[in-house]
């Protein structure tokens, strides 16, 4: 004997504009009879506006013309976390965003891959988007503030950045990577860091003051884009 499961009924009814409320099963009084009745109580949903479709222009992938990455600020009592790239620059944890990732997940992954530290999405606060150009290539960098994490930073095998250390904000080293410098001055405009200009758009979800201290609420909308020049 085959009977549609309540989940299947619910899917069918929802497709046709109903909400399934209860399902009652009534077996035949004769236990040998392979008959069962179902009483479904459903309510018609209010008419919903028609869905508007969307589609790509074509099946061809868009031509790549931008590099998209993230950089994470971790602030402890000892200062901010920086690592040294094999090419000599000092950098925040971060890297390229992979296909299918959110910016928060990219921060979580890069932090684990580069430093061994573990955090969760609810601990990652996106600060905003920095846009500049390098040799004609559009570069988009999303800065983030990580409020809490687990573990101790350590050099990871096969990573290009290591020798992680904490640096006090009033004793930041020279030779910061440009993207890291841009993120730091977007977060703390008072920091005396020189870097090439970038265009900064603050995220709507940002809820820290410029010193990195969480406030009571979140701003409901994005602030205007701000050109940043530190050179």
What would you note in describing this structure?
This is MutT-family protein. Residues 63-190 form the Nudix hydrolase domain. GO terms for molecular function: hydrolase activity. Residues 207-231 are annotated as: Disordered. Its cofactor is Mg(2+). With 231 residues, this protein is mainly β. The longest helix has 13 residues, at 103-115. It is elongated. It folds into two domains: 7-44, no CATH class; 66-230, Nucleoside Triphosphate Pyrophosphohydrolase. It has helices at 6-15, 103-115, 178-187, and strands at 18-27, 36-44, 66-76, 79-85, 90-91, 94-96, 124-134, 137-146, 161-167, 195-202, 226-230. Helix content is 14%, strand content 36%. The protein contains three helices and eleven strands, in the order αββββββαβββαββ. The strands form two sheets. Strands 3, 4, 5, 6, 7, 8, 9, 10 and 11 form a nine-stranded mixed beta sheet that branches. A two-stranded antiparallel ribbon has the order 1-2.
Span of the ends, CA to CA: 78 Å
Computed structural class: mainly beta
The CATH architecture category of the largest domain equals Alpha-Beta Complex
What is the CATH H-level superfamily of the largest domain? Nucleoside Triphosphate Pyrophosphohydrolase
SSE string: HEEEEEEHEEEHEE
Instruction: Give the radius of gyration.
Output: 26 Å
Shape: elongated
Say what the CATH topology of the largest domain is: Nucleoside Triphosphate Pyrophosphohydrolase
Residue share in helix = 10-25%
The total tally of domains equals 2
The major β-sheet equals:
9 strands, mixed
